[in-house]
């Protein structure tokens, strides 16, 4: 036998393109219809596809070489894209621009931030806090179109993040000159993390303590010019530095800013809410709460982003699992088994698929509610009647729900990214397979726009307060109606346990909804119990809330999962008949898998018995096996092009090995070993000189 | 009032150095004694301190600028350190070298890998698989001392990772020339992830299918020269490329290798186990299992590494939490509240502190057992009596235990790093605060040396098989003795539930040990149930194991937590009296917090009632508050110098803001904005030309 003739002795290697093609032979649902349903309509899908194609074809928007760029190149590449997009953002319909940004947030999250700092944060601050004439002035100056002005958002400081009320930067009114003096009194007052400050911004929306006539009025917003718009030299009293390398999103040039007695005209304070007159009188707004509406938008968009990023991660992991083979019979002539055929691999990925759909639908509904709320708020004007009270109630509820959703969806997505990455085995550790950078980029979502832990506590506080109000006869908001059924007047749990042990009952959508309602009610009850125990110890209200923080956080988690499941089921019910079976299966998998993960809660609330939990576990196994049949089709329904997926392992055609090899070799062409002469040759050729000392006469005896 | 006179209006800013100093006023235990206990003796602590100081003082070992190095600089910096360490490794006592490497693994994990690839993997392959004369030959050639040879380890392929038996590279014996022909028959056979291959290695330990006389004998190891040691030119038939950027550990130059009919002498096959004679006869070893001992070492070291890296992460997070202040009373003249004083922050960090101690002690014990086992194995020789059977049993048990520990400890540590990072708020996202890179570097531990999911399934398979053996009268290994008490002859659970509701009983170490034993027994029982259900369906043994994989993985998790708790308690009992209270508290926190996280298991096994779970939750809250008093002292006891901690937020003296600012500004000096002329100026100064088309005559009517 020739030494070249060995193929028949080895296991057969399957063609990955055929492996993935098999998966598409008989989807249980019309894929295109599901895409429309996920996107919210055929027209949106088509607009998305046009945008994806435009991005893919523009050389500016190349992204597969990102891992090989230096920090400086990364930032320059990002800046080179700003102008084109700024023109599109101001000339194209808002809906299209929003959709474009939501795609860019998946393709290039760091650029999304760079762009969003101006349009979302800086211009958003003007929109939300400037008077009409101030807004007109800044728009005239080019603040919307980035003609003459590029903005940044100066809120956080080196020593102060979540507690905006604790910022140290001061804005002191100098009546003599009709100016504010912006000043950073200490090192910890240094503005820190200011995106765009290091290299890009001409102006900054600075959050500072308003001080007038020796009195502090709390944190307000001031437009401060940072750089001369012609020369880009720093303005007098402004010092700026570069924060350098970050965990992710290096496309944005975060910087620090110190102000040393910088003078700005009084009119640069944004005065939609609080006003300072020429005479130095401070006029505070009647309804400060209405200003919080603007805070919600970022959170709502992060729920969408969690869904969108999770869709990409699962596309990569599921498609790869349908072509990667490992172990199996291993006899010559047979092929190894697909990862996706292993129950444990299904178990790793497919509950995450169900979570992704839960987030898709929650994001859509949250977004609709938010738009409605904002249009109500904008129409309120100076009315102070019952409409305002209703709006404030609605605002509080949306604030709490969005806080919980933002926290748990961003945590969920971060986990999905890393689980998907780990499911790629060693290849997940390559920078070219897309998920390590996705993790680093996404991670900050758990911190900014409200640290997740603080948001969950806010949500939990709302749940406790609302439950207490309900005990005092106040009506419950729609999303908390389950409390009424689950908790009796004496505070005991009155929900009915699951009566049947049949798998179809235990894991039905109605049972799961009731189950989650029961544990959420129980968790809120326990948080109320701990809060009241704190009060009974003589703690202040705030300290009693601190005392109950563990159970409060837990209540927020249970409530948010319940919300996710209920909204998911509502979407299943509204969906086209052809899609209902697969969506219902995913909703059941979501509810049942999450219940198994938190089985203690269900046993404690008495809803499920131990045997029923075992039934749920068995259901999760069979549901995974059922979803597995459609798994690749579900990634197809997400509708991301290969350009957006941006991972050779997640290619539509399954040709993973060829394209992975091509990408790695094209980005890392072979060159001579760079340090052979300087380091390797001396290492290999060295000889160790004896390092014993000279002989000593005394030892020779 | 002058505009500069505002300090009295703002909240007071606390001195962070004073904030941390307060924490050290009254530790409940002698810190230095705990350091000795953690390290394993005063002499080890002293040796560690000497090594840390030596590293800190060497300019080669600067690490705080790592985030600003390019990929090429990172690799060159790493290579520049190899020579010095190679000389130390071969001239200093083994114990010192091991300790040095364990510190380097925390300080510079990527370098640890670069160095470990030669010493651990390449030379380890020679040690474990070469005959005595082969080993002597390669040592003579410089394979230990890196004089003439630097090695890499060629196991994984583009298409093959976990399944070593499925590798495609062939080593075909050519009797005519007494050579093996090494060949990569397909693209997926390309050696992939080979650390050191891209730029550094002269030789490779290649895993390939041994083919002799038309028969395949499975995967064996062959030494193949990659590069000329004088010119560093690639040898004929060898193609190598660079895998470029990775998620982390960029200090090591991973590469791919393709072999095209490369000829090596027959003697380059490592023949300690399988031998091929000149005539082409293949002599296979009687006890192939004994070769698996070498696999365990990497896992054991990763348990230690998990503990060591977690110590660093907690040092950073806890110290920062003792100086960072946020919210609180907020009146002028008062200071904000320390993060560490918030119950929820204690809840985030201090159970992780308890987990870290659990890993410290498990690692130590695992290491001791492994050393014992290896010395028994090495003394066995060709004996084939009962001593060998005992050794094989012991080996299997250690294999399974180390598989479970490696998986759950690396996952635990990865979670600890990210939880600690998130607890730093926005500053956790900076590359200069140390935890984002720690995450990226550590993540690969969950994949290499056995993918965690596959390892847990192996551990679970052992648990099921051992439980079945026990049912057939075989004795249980020590770590599984709990099965005897918990499971009756008929397979039902016979463990006794917790009888008291008193918090001191519910959360005592004895109760917690019994509780975990009971849930581990229950989980194993359920895995056996599912395995047997698979058999009853007519599945093959292997497929029945696949069928039961979810419950098998779960059994491995419960068993491993039980092991961690039992070993922790054993260490508490052996510890010096002064340390026992704090260690016992940490052990209780570990056991109770883990139980609350898995409360469903305890309710299902009937060990705890729902009310007792609530008692445990309350205990976790008070235990966190108790550990909080010593939290900074515990980080001091870890004994890492500021150099090793390598984060301005984790400094011993608490001077976080000054030093963070200094580091960021020194690494990122202010320079002119790099793309003002090319990108920003044109953006700011552009005007949009009208983009309506020309007028049309037909519209003028």
From TrEMBL, chains A, B:
GO terms for cellular component: peroxisome. Its cofactor is FAD. One of its GO terms (molecular function) is FAD binding. Transmembrane segments: none annotated. Residues 292-464 form the Acyl-CoA oxidase C-alpha1 domain. Pathway: Lipid metabolism; peroxisomal fatty acid beta-oxidation. The keyword Transport does not apply. Pfam families: ACOX (PF01756), ACOX_C_alpha1 (PF22924), Acyl-CoA_dh_M (PF02770), Acyl-CoA_ox_N (PF14749). Residues 31-141 form the Acyl-coenzyme A oxidase N-terminal domain. Its main location: other. Residues 509-684 form the Acyl-CoA oxidase C-terminal domain. Keywords: FAD, Fatty acid metabolism, Flavoprotein, Lipid metabolism, Oxidoreductase, Peroxisome. The keyword Transferase does not apply. FAD binds at residues 156, 195. Heteropentamer composed of five different subunits. Belongs to the acyl-CoA oxidase family. This is Acyl-coenzyme A oxidase. It comes from Coemansia spiralis.
């Amino acid at each position: 036998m020739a030494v070249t003739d060995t193929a028949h002795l080895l296991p057969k290697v399957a063609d990955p393109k055929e492996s993935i093609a098999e998966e598409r032979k008989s989807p249980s649902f019309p894929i295109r219809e599901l895409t429309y349903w996920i996107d919210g309509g055929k027209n949106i899908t088509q607009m998305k596809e046009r945008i994806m194609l435009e991005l893919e074809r523009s050389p500016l928007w190349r992204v597969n070489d990102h891992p090989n760029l230096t920090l400086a190149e990364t930032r320059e590449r990002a800046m080179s894209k700003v102008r084109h997009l700024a023109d599109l953002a101001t000339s194209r319909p808002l809906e299209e621009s929003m959709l474009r940004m939501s795609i860019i947030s998946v393709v290039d999250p760091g650029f999304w931030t760079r762009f969003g700092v101006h349009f979302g944060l800086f211009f958003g601050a003007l929109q939300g806090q400037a008077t009409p004439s101030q807004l007109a002035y800044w728009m005239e100056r080019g603040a919307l179109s980035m003609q003459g002005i590029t903005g940044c958002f100066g809120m956080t400081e080196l020593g102060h993040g979540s507690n905006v009320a604790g910022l140290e930067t001061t804005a002191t009114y100098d009546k003599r000159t009709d100016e504010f003096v912006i000043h950073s009194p200490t090192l910890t007052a240094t503005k820190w993390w200011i995106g765009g400050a290091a290299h890009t911004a001409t102006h900054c929306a600075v959050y500072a303590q308003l001080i007038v006539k020796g009195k502090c009025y709390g944190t307000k917003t001031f437009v401060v010019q940072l750089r001369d718009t012609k020369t880009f030299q720093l303005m007098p009293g402004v010092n700026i530095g570069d924060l350098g390398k970050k965990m992710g999103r290096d496309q944005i040039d975060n910087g620090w800013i110190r102000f040393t007695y910088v003078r700005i005209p009084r009119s640069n304070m944004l005065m939609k809410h609080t006003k300072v007159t020429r005479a130095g009188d401070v006029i505070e707004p009647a309804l400060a709460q209405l200003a919080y509406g603007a805070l919600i938008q970022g959170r709502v968009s992060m729920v969408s982003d969690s869904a969108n990023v999770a869709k990409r991660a699962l596309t990569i992991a599921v498609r790869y699992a349908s072509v990667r083979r490992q172990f199996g019979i291993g006899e010559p002539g047979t092929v190894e088994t697909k990862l996706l055929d292993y129950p444990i691999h299904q178990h790793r990925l497919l509950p995450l698929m169900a979570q992704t759909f839960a987030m898709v639908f929650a994001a859509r509904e949250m977004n609709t509610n938010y738009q409605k709320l904002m249009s109500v708020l904008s129409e309120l004007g100076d009315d102070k009647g019952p409409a305002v009270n209703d709006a404030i109630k609605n605002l509080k509820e949306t604030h709490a729900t969005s806080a919980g959703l933002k926290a748990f969806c961003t945590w969920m997505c971060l986990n999905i990214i890393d689980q998907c990455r780990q499911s790629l085995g060693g290849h997940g550790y390559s920078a070219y397979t897309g998920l390590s950078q996705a993790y680093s980029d996404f991670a900050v979502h758990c911190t900014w726009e409200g640290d997740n832990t603080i948001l969950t506590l806010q949500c939990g506080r709302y749940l406790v307060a609302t439950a207490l109000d309900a005990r005092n006869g106040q009506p419950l908001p729609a999303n908390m109606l389950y409390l009424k059924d689950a908790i009796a007047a004496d505070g005991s749990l009155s929900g009915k346990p699951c009566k049947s042990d049949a798998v179809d009952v235990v894991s039905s959508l109605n049972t799961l909804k009731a189950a989650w309602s029961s544990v959420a009610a129980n968790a809120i009850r326990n948080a109320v119990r701990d809060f009241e125990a704190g009060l009974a110890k003589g703690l202040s209200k705030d300290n009693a809330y601190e005392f109950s923080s563990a159970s409060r956080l837990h209540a927020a988690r249970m409530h948010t999962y319940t919300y996710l499941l209920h909204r998911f089921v509502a979407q299943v019910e509204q969906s086209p008949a052809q899609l209902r079976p697969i969506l219902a299966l995913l909703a059941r998998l979501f509810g049942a898998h999450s219940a198994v993960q938190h089985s203690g809660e269900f046993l404690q609330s008495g809803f499920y018995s131990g045997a029923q939990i075992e039934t749920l576990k068995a259901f999760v196994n069979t549901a995974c096996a059922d979803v597995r049949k459609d798994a690749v089709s579900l990634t197809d329904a997400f509708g991301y092009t290969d350009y957006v997926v941006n991972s050779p392992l997640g290619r539509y055609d399954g040709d993973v090995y060829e394209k992975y090899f091509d990408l790695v070799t094209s980005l890392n062409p072979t060159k001579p070993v760079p340090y052979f002469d300087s380091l390797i040759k001396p290492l290999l050729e060295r000889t160790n000189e004896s390092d014993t000392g000279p002989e000593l006469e005394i030892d020779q005896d």
